Target: TauD/TfdA-like domain-containing protein
Amino acid sequence: MTTRVLTAFWRISSGFKTPSQKILTINLRSSQLSAATQASIFEPIPREELVTKFKSRLRDRQFLPGSSGGGFPEFLAEPRDSFPLGVRVNNRNQSTLAELTAKCMEYVEENFPHSPAILFRDLPAKTAEEFSIIAQAIQGKTLTYEGGTAFRTQVDKSAGTYTASIDPPSYTIEPHNEMSFNDLFPSKVFFFCLKEAADGCGGETPLVKNKDLLSKMDPEVVQKFEEKQLRYVRYLPDKSRGEYMNWQHTFTTENREDVEPRAKQQGYSVTWDTNGDLYLWTNKDVFIRHPLTGEKIWFNQAHSHHGSYYKAMPTFLDTEIPDDKFPCHAYYGDGSVIEPEAIQHIRATAWECAVGFQWRSGDLLVMDNLAVQHSRIGFSGDRKVLAYLTA
Ligand SMILES: [Fe+2]
Model:
């Protein structure tokens, strides 16, 4: 609904009405037109258009944690039951990208309760600069990746956009809720596809509904985690020693004094050793309540914050490192070791629930970070996805 059309309508319809009648008429017509405009802007994408031409292998896949350990499906599944919900954006009124983004976000708010992952296609956006415009048009507090566990670079500081993880392309990143190991985590995660991988080259962003995962998990495994909680430990060496992850990158500072308050804000206890290396630990529940739906949600990274996650990475191939000297590791909350079978069970069940979809350049994926896990299939060739987070 453009201002021009609304003004013209007001002039025609106002006639001899009193001011209050005029306002009522405008409000009624405006909302009717708004609904009609929404219907004409958004159009469902047929499921077939979201299905990839080639199925990505999961079982026995190289550089995928646990893939040879049993229970993995052979291939990544196709989208099912409108997950993700694909929506084409028509721009017949030649609205600006910021105006269309605002409409998309209205659509998200209306549909998130039943569709927690929505893929918008055909927005007039193809570049990182246009993703910045999208990010700036989204209401909500921008969140940084400070305290995160993946390597990424900031693309536009003022817009708050980042690259998605730049871990080695051949590595397959396991499903996870973004920063569920921190006290401060995003409620929404936005991914923007700058360049999709070529057919058959991987690079999908598989999605998992947390409630599907929980419904398929062994209740005894779940109960043990619930009773004992999780202990996340992190080892962040000083960057001078050139190791994979360092505290300067993680906390975006060169000053040691900045780290402690920031780590404590995320709920961590802090220890420095004499080499200037940093150790963090925190205990967390494995469940949270969704603030909108009230649903009890499996929300943790027992498996993808575990030393075995890093052991499968090309970066650590053939290196002998104790579990607690990987960037992250997880124990039960009492400090006892999590059984490898329990980790394998979580991994295999998550992949059993995962669906992949076909990215197209310019796609915008919006996820409820509490309801949906995301991941990345290892890829070859060129593939670029950007990210943005809101609290
Ligand atoms: Fe992530």
In short: Residues 176, 178, 374 surround fe (ii) ion (CB under 6 Å).
